[in-house]
Amino acid sequence: MNRNRFLLIGIIAIAAGAFVSYAVYHSLESRNGSRMQAGAQVVVAAVNIPLGAKIEEKDLKIVHLPEADVPPGSFRSTTKIVGRGAVLPIAAGDFVLRNKLAGESAGSGLPALIPPGMRAVSVRVNEVIGVAGFVQPGTRVDVMVTGTPVGGSQEQTMTVLRNVAVIASGQNLERNSNGTAQASPVITLLVSPDDAQRLALASSEGKIQLSLRNPLDTGQTEASATDEASVFGRIAAPVAPVTHAAHPHRVAHVAPPPDYSVEVYKGDKKDITKFETPN
Fold first, then answer.
1. Nearest Cα to 129, choosing from 208, 184, 191, 225?
2. CATH-assigned architecture of domain 39-113
3. Among candidates 56, 42, 18, which has minimal Cα distance to 93?
4. What is the pTM of this model?
5. What is residue 46's predicted lDDT score, i.e. its pLDDT?
6. Of the candidate ranges 145-149, 200-204, 270-274, the one whose mean pLDDT is the lowest
7. Is 70 exceeded by the pLDDT of residue 116?
8. CB-based contact 147:206 (threshold 8 Å)
9. Domain residue limits, the chain
């Protein structure tokens, strides 16, 4: 009887201890969760947000993290995000940071991608000028122009712009994710105001050609203008030899000197002696 009583008391004690432990654990979890909910609210992307897209409320969600895990430049609410454009692609689950968004009044689309002090200029291209469709947003190019300089007599090709960013291909602001060619009749370049004028003049006065660069190659190597002579070379026209007509040798005939005579006077007499000139 006593044995059964002690066994029952032990079971009750174990059950009470387990209940108390669970209650304490649940209380601590609730407090930690409450502190987390109150101090670490942060906005992340609910879906993939493409470059240039206008962000809407449905594109965002709020998560809660420890305060130490919240990155600088993040947002605690969606109020200052909705309606702004994305200047960088934002993947689902990524933090929505200030450097990934256009200014609050900059809008969305292509205008939001143009930094202050820069200009977007479009040029007409074909498969050759656009490097078979591999000139896409995010790539960098050199711009060459072929034309006849003022006062010149032959065409020249020279590089007028170097290491220029491509920000759009047609109406696409992002390149194909699989890296395949993306043919478009128009390419938009990001240039300074001065370079925008040079590009406009080159497009109207000559024929332009884009030269695709390796994105890691940021050098500004200078190259002299190339003309037809430097490509094809020049061969001097052969000089015709000067010929002289053959003239027969002419021998001058000189008349022999005449004979001469010597007059000798003796008193009133005169003697004349003639001499012949020797040949």
1. 208
2. Alpha-Beta Complex (3.90)
3. 42
4. 0.57
5. 93
6. 270-274
7. yes
8. yes
9. 39-113, 118-232
Spell 248-274 as b/e; 16+ CB within 10 A means b. eeeeeeeeeeeeeeeeeeeeeeeeeee
pLDDT value of position 58: 94
Question: Radius of gyration of the chain from Cα atoms?
Answer: 50
As a whole number of angstroms, the distance between CA 104 and CA 87 comes to 12
DSSP code at position 90: B
- In 3D, which of 120, 119, 80, 117 has the Cα closest to residue 100? 80
How far apart CA 184 and CA 130 sit, in angstroms, is: 8
b/e per residue, 90-108, with b = 16+ CB within 10 A?
A: beeeebbeeebbbeeebeb
Q: Which residue has the tokens 């203008």?
A: 225
Question: Tokens representing 176?
Answer: 């194909």
Candidates 69, 64, 72, 70; CA nearest to 35 is: 64
The 3-state DSSP class for residue 132 equals helix
Cα–Cα distances in Å, from 109 out to 84, 207, 235?
10, 30, 56
Question: Please, is 79 exposed, middle or buried when counting C-beta atoms within 10 Å of its C-beta (0-12, 13-18, 19+)?
Answer: exposed
* Residue in this structure with the two tokens 């080159």, named with its chain if needed: 202
pLDDT score of 76 more than 80: yes
User: Which H or E run includes 23?
Assistant: helix 2-39
